[in-house]
Amino acid sequence: MISSDSPTEKIAGTIHHKSLEGGFWGIVVSDGRRLVPVNPIPSRLQREGTRIEAEIKAAHVLGAVQWGTPVEVMSIDLAS
Prior knowledge:
globular; five-stranded mixed β-barrel
């Protein structure tokens, strides 16, 4: 993984499991964007429909899943 020098962004969204390309956990942001974390989402949050708040930044990876934008999750937790 090669992280970009882009700034971090705080988001609110929902966790979703996708069965594409072997299966993965993605995030749908409240504004409709689809994000694919390049680092693992903690297992305690890996439930369909879990509302989260996170801090992310853009990530540049080879062979990324074609469902959404690859991001590096800097921090993530349940939405308050």
